[in-house]
Structures are given as structure tokens and as C-alpha cells.
Amino acid sequence: MITAITLNYNQNDYTSKCALSVLESVGEDIHLVVIDNGSTEDNFRELKSLLPLDDSRLTVHRIVDNIGYVGGVNVGLKIAFEQRNSDYTLVMNNDTIIDSKAITELIQTAKKHDNKAIVSGKVYNYDEQDTLQFIGNGKGKTGLLDFPAFVKNRREKDLGQYDQEMEMGMIDDIFWLIPKLVFDQVGYYSNYFFLYGEQNDYALRAVKAGNKLIYTPNAKIWHKGKVTTADGDSNSPKIEYWRSFAVMKIAVLHFSGADSKKLLSQWKYKRTLKVMIWILTGKSKFSSLKAHLLAIKHFKFWNKVRYVDNGYNPF
Q: Which residues form the Glycosyltransferase 2-like domain (predicted)?
């Protein structure tokens, strides 16, 4: 049995369309858990009105106070693996529409690898449905978080250029399938993260445990993206703070000694320079540089204490 989980936070339109697409999937014994992660009462009420609550394949789980993306996913993983005893869990973003055969393809691919793999597929753009947004990242030369993306600029016409199964250096939980065997080794998402970086950490932990990250071209999904945080502004200081903090955490959690210091030093220099260029060219504001530098300052304290991330963001 497979359980699909997706989170809702004041986005009942996207979430309901995502849920209906999952329930239209064919070929597998599927149960969907929609986790409402602290939406307003009005939004939650409307969400329920848009969902087929009489469908036995659907569970709606309400969390009154938002506990962050990581917290919400972990609630879903607990329901899926511990309460429902699922063989697989599909983690997916709520601003997506999944192809009716995608879940079957993901499971078949996982079985090919003896269920020792996290599996994802083709991610298309929601508003330009024949263009690819993401399929995964390759393995760079340095090995220090060097994962070049296959799809360039997030809008690449699908001409069959990625129609072969591949082992990836990194994939994303826009949608990915976690077999029970992998979960038993890796466990839950790390609460060192609240938002951003959590999927990279999980994927790296899975690989360290002897699993693979596999891309199959036969599983497809359409993804809106950038709709949850900062009103979709990917250059906002709020997102810059979270992203910068996440990269530094991953550096020390997954590399040690000289490698960790080298990675942090190189990344800080390159990222600071990039943000400054964005400011000079009008692509970002000075507040983004402030957010980046503040993240570096706060990371130094975090690295001494390693506290649970409660979602604090000064922006």
C-alpha cells in the first residue's frame, strides 16, 4: 500500500486540485493524507468543501498551529509508516498536479532497485505544461554540494532529451517516493530545518545509508512553485535568510574537518558576491545582503548549540 501526503497552508485551491489528481491515479492501492498545517478556520472550512470527504481513500488531518514544512511532513510520515503501515510514502508539494500513472511508475522503479532508492521524476511547469522545470541534479567534480541541475533556467522544452532513467546526485521532494526500507534506515526529516534545505539533508542521509537517488522519466508532475513563502518572491530577504542558513547547516552536518571549512569559506564568498551583484543590477535589494550576513552570524551560534529550528526569521 502507498500513502501520499501533501500539506495545505491557506491554499485550498491548489491543494484541492492536487488531491483530486492523486485520487485519479490508477494501478495502486493509494491513500491520500492532506495535512492542514495551521490554515485559518475559513480556509480550512473551504478546503473541506472542495474535497470528496466521503472517499475512503482520503484522510484530512488538521494541525491547529503551523509547525513548518518539516514538522508537517513528519506528521504525514508518521501517519503513513507507523499508523497505516504503508510500503511506500509519496511526499509531494500541494501546488502540483500529478499524472494518473506517475505513482505506479515510481513504485515500479523503486522495486527495480530493491526499494533501496528514493525515486522522483519529471517536473513540468504548471503554466507551460510542455516545458520542464526540474528533473534532478547531477554529480559535480568537487563532491562538496556540487550538484549541477540538468534542466537549465527551469524552462526547457521536453524533446525527449531526459527520457532515460538516471541515478542523481540530488533530487527534490516536489515529489518523491520513499520506500519503507529507506525510511527504516533514514527516519524522519531533520528538525534542524524548518523550511529550505530539508530535502537535501534527507537525500544525503539516504545516500550515506547506502541508498540511491533515482530519476525515472515515466513519472510526471506539473508544479507551480514559489507560492508559499514571501508571496512568490524568490529574491526576498526572508527566503535569502532561510536558504543561506540551510546551506551552512548542510555543510557542517554532512562534511567534516577541512572539507566543511573549505565549503563554508567558498560558499560564503561566492554567495555574498552574487547577492551584491544582484543588488547592483537591480535584481535584489540591500535587505537581501543584510539577510545573508545575518544568517551567517546566526549560523555561528547555531553550530555551537545545534538547536531545533522553530522557523524564526527576522524578515
A: 4-131
